[in-house]
Design a protein that fits this description.
Elements (H helix, E strand, L loop, with lengths): L12 E7 L3 H14 L5 E8 L5 H8 L4 E5 L5 H9 L6 E6 L2 E3 L3 H10 L4 E9 L16 H8 L2 H4 L20 E2 L7 E5 H7 L11 H11 L3 E12 L10 H19 L6 H23 L3 H11 L3
Parallel strand pairs: 1-2, 1-4, 2-3, 6-9
Antiparallel strand pairs: 4-8, 5-9, 6-8, 7-9
Helix pairs in contact: 1-2, 5-10, 9-10
């Protein structure tokens, strides 16, 4: 039987948070959740991926309303989310990163938008990095061969206002305007229960990156809109869960996810020669990122590496 909220009232919103050694920022995240859900009846899950920094004990002691799931090993982002998603009962579901701190009205605004747009299955807010810049993963296009290549070879960075070269992160669009996009980031991903039940769980083939992109593709295939809604804002301390970890694995998993997504949805649609160009671009990019990480102090560069690795 599903684990229901701690009383018998209907659940308005189920929030799922995966944590991996993020005690300090997870505390801020949960404090912001507690402060901003208002009169909503909210069900919160934290799935801890074998943290060694005391995160699960902190959750248990300071946030007794949270349903805590302790994993003995790090099972990855998709699988950990799915553990809680199998238990949710809310009419709406929010995937929330442990390194996101919500604004006072973030949940209320995105819920209101979704409720007034029944064709929308997924909505995200405007995610701001600690330095005030937009988290570019907020709004993305699917990485078709040319969209992916322009990003991998750096043309999207050289020409951020070009509709041709900057399609992946949509940097030519106004970041303060609402619009439908191909994909949003799993750091803040609000959906209706109806859409979730139709689309299903995250694909556990993805370990650390790409699962949100894959999910958005499936929501779009099912006919649901995916929307970037910047009227609601949250702060994303991106890469917090990667600090002090293994940068090689971060880089490897990112590029493995890129290849997996491309093989799953696009490889059969294009000529073999074009596919091999894409794969060469992916693994050339992997080599470049790996060598670059070796040129700097790993502890100093981990956060920057993690901030750039978002499918």
């Amino acid at each position: 039987m599903p684990i229901v909220a701690k009383d018998s009232n209907p659940v308005d919103l189920s929030i799922v948070i995966v944590s991996y050694n993020t005690q300090a920022i997870l505390r801020q995240c949960l404090q912001s959740v507690r402060a901003c859900h208002g009169d909503l009846h909210v069900q919160v899950f934290v799935v801890d991926n074998a943290s060694i920094d005391g995160s699960p004990d902190m959750v248990e002691e300071e946030f007794p309303e949270v349903e805590l799931i302790r994993n003995k090993i790090n099972v990855g982002f998709a699988k950990a989310n799915n553990q809680a998603l199998r238990k949710v009962t809310g009419t709406h579901i929010l995937l929330l990163n442990s390194d996101v701190v919500l604004g006072a009205d973030t949940i209320a605004k995105t819920l209101k938008y979704m409720q007034s747009h029944p064709q929308v299955g997924v909505v995200t807010c405007k995610l701001i990095l600690p330095d005030g810049r937009l988290d570019l993963a907020c709004r993305r296009s699917f990485p078709t061969p040319f969209v992916a290549l322009w990003r991998l070879v750096g043309l999207s960075r050289l020409f951020p206002r070009s509709k041709t070269f900057a399609q992946y992160n949509l940097t030519y669009l106004d970041e303060d305007t609402t619009y439908e996009v191909d994909a949003v980031v799993g750091a803040y991903m609000l959906m209706t229960r109806e859409a979730f039940m139709e689309v299903g769980l995250l694909d556990e083939s993805f370990f650390m990156y790409g699962e949100d992109l894959d999910w958005c593709y499936r929501f779009r295939q099912a006919g649901y809109g995916v929307v970037y809604y910047p009227e609601a804002v949250a702060r994303h301390h991106k890469g917090a869960s990667s600090l002090g970890r293994k940068p090689y694995r971060m880089v490897r998993e990112f590029h493995r996810a890129m290849e997996l997504f491309y093989r799953k949805y696009f490889a059969k649609k294009y000529f073999i020669a074009l596919n091999w160009i894409v794969y060469a671009g992916i693994y050339g990019h992997f080599g470049f990122n790996f060598l670059q990480s070796k040129l700097y102090s790993l502890t100093a560069r981990n956060k920057e590496v993690a901030s750039r690795l978002t499918l």
